[in-house]
Specification:
The protein is mainly α and 238 residues long. The protein has helices spanning 7-31, 48-72, 78-92, 94-103, 109-132, 138-157, 168-185, 188-194, 201-236.
Length: 238
């Protein structure tokens, strides 16, 4: 038999190799540019703002694991406090990456895509974890996730046609979500009992319900308001 390669296989392999090399070249090209310094030249997709956003996304599986491990083990709430700290840190850095991107002119398409995803992963991971642990009704988790994911998908769908700015209500909703979830994650009643302060659980439970209820109401109301704004802007266009 001859040693000549099948030309069909060679053609397929050649196209696959060329496609892989072009893909690698695009990745390298996107990685070039400014990482930290301010300027008007092209910003790298691997700039400091995008790195912070990516780290926020990685916080989610870590704090979920810590929550489940704390519930399954006997850490005395220590792992849960660490998980709560990671969630709070991740939510707190939401403004940091955006501020860096704007002030240092590091805004990229990758960052625009990742930033809302990071928020939804953190919020969604925390809500699902609380529901798995039986500390939050599943309908609350489903309602919040449907609103957050649905609005995010809608925003990207209409992004080329129009930009609908975040309202004050939307920003207030985000704050209440972060505070309510942080409060729900923190084992405050268990820690109070551990240091001999009894009878605090009803108080903490009441505060938790009030905060989460407010966050859910704001989530639904601002979601409806966002769709109404989008409809009005759509009708106003020539």
């Amino acid at each position: 038999m001859g040693n000549d390669a099948d030309p069909r296989k060679s053609g397929i392999a050649g196209r696959a190799r060329d496609g892989y090399e072009r893909g690698q070249a695009r990745v390298v090209e996107r990685a070039r540019g400014r990482v930290i310094r301010h300027g008007d030249s092209k910003a790298s997709d691997g700039n400091i703002a995008n790195i912070i956003t990516a780290v926020r996304i990685l916080f989610a599986p870590l704090f979920i694991y810590l929550l489940i491990a704390d519930a399954a083990g006997d850490s005395g709430g220590a792992l849960r406090w660490v998980a709560t700290g990671l969630f709070v840190l991740g939510i707190a850095t939401d403004g940091v990456d955006g501020m860096l991107a704007r002030r240092r002119n590091l805004v990229t398409n990758v960052g625009i895509l990742l930033d809302p995803i990071a928020d939804k992963v953190l919020i969604g991971g925390a809500l699902v974890s609380l529901s798995i642990l039986g500390e939050l009704p599943w309908w609350v988790t489903a309602l919040v996730l449907v609103r957050e994911i649905g609005i995010t998908v809608f925003r990207f769908a209409v992004l080329r046609d129009r930009v609908i700015p975040a309202s004050r209500g939307g920003k207030l909703k985000t704050v209440f979500q972060a505070v309510a979830i942080s409060f729900a994650l923190a084992p405050l009643a268990a820690s109070a009992d551990a240091i001999g302060v009894a009878g605090t659980e009803p108080w903490f439970t009441g505060i938790d319900i009030a905060l989460m209820s407010t966050a859910v109401v704001l989530t639904v109301v601002t979601g409806i308001d966002y769709l109404v704004q989008a409809y009005r802007l759509g009708r106003a266009r020539p």
